[in-house]
Specification:
The protein is an alpha/beta fold. It has nine helices and nine strands. Helix 1 crosses helix 9 and helix 4 runs parallel beside helix 6.
């Protein structure tokens, strides 16, 4: 199996893309540490993985807090003796506000959860990964980090930062045999998207709109994104570092670009009734 004897930390690992990735890594031999804030979901996620024959532990912590990030890495080393893979997945999004409408608190929370978290987790994980002879870091960016979008200014700033931070890390740590890449998903069937659609009027009306932004005319499953993460974390990608990999059903090159004003089917976040709603990857 691709991840025999490997140890991975997955942040935001209790649902959606994070849980799907943790499950896949475990199925292929990895021992997994899940980091998130919600203890009941964390315990449930561990039970799912162990029931399938895998090895996993849960660490309750906030990825924007330095001491929690340091302790999570320590737990991985104390529990499994090494660290090989880090998937920086946790994040938040505030929808339906432009830069002027974004509060300083919302800006700080968005940058802290989506960008500072990668700095903190990677800062503490890299020395341990280097001690094993190298490994892989995968960051969860977004197509919003490649081309931007309306109504989510802080999120775009954070995810754009993830993309360029990924490239800088790849250059800085290549000599340590640590590869650093990021994925840039389009719309994915996760609790985060479900909550967003609910706030915009409900899945019945919104799901066709979200699907129509992708030339494949559907949204992704978490498992499809997890397979991209697993590829970048595996030795199959041994000569791949510093890339931002779109996993978006053709949305970026397609005519129905989800960020483009040409997409007349996309909801206008500026005119929706919902205001100032915060969504978090658990």
């Amino acid at each position: 199996m691709r991840f025999d004897n490997k140890v991975a930390i997955v942040t935001g690992g209790t649902s959606g893309i994070g849980l799907a990735t943790a499950q896949l890594l475990s199925q292929e031999g990895a021992r997994v540490v899940l980091m998130a804030r919600n203890k009941p979901r964390g315990q449930a996620a561990v039970e799912q993985i162990t029931a399938a024959g895998g090895l996993a532990v849960f660490f309750p912590g906030d990825v924007s807090v330095a001491v929690d990030c340091r302790r999570c890495v320590t737990v991985a080393i104390e529990t499994y003796g090494r660290l090989d893979i880090l998937f920086n997945n946790a994040g938040v999004i505030y929808v339906n506000r432009n830069l002027v409408e974004t509060s300083e608190e919302e800006w700080d929370d968005t940058l802290g959860s989506n960008l500072k978290s990668i700095f903190l987790m990677s800062k503490h994980a890299i020395p341990s990964i280097a001690e094993t002879g190298g490994g892989a870091i995968v960051n969860n960016a977004s197509i919003f980090g490649l081309v931007g979008g309306s109504g989510v200014a802080a999120y775009c700033a954070a995810k754009g930062g993830v993309v360029t931070l990924t490239k800088a890390m790849a250059l800085d740590h290549a000599a340590q045999n640590i590869r650093v890449n990021c994925i840039c998903p389009g719309s994915v069937d996760t609790p985060l998207l479900e909550n967003e659609m609910k706030e915009l009027g409900g899945a019945e009306s919104q799901l066709p709109k979200f699907a129509s932004r992708h030339p494949m005319n559907r949204i992704a499953s978490p498992q499809e994104i997890a397979r991209a993460v697993a590829y970048l974390a595996s030795d199959e990608a041994s000569f791949v570092t510093g890339i931002a990999l779109p996993v978006d059903g053709g949305a970026l090159p397609g005519e129905l670009n989800p960020i483009s004003n040409r997409d007349r089917h996309a909801p206008n976040l500026k005119t929706q009734s919902v205001r100032h709603h915060r969504l978090r990857v658990p």
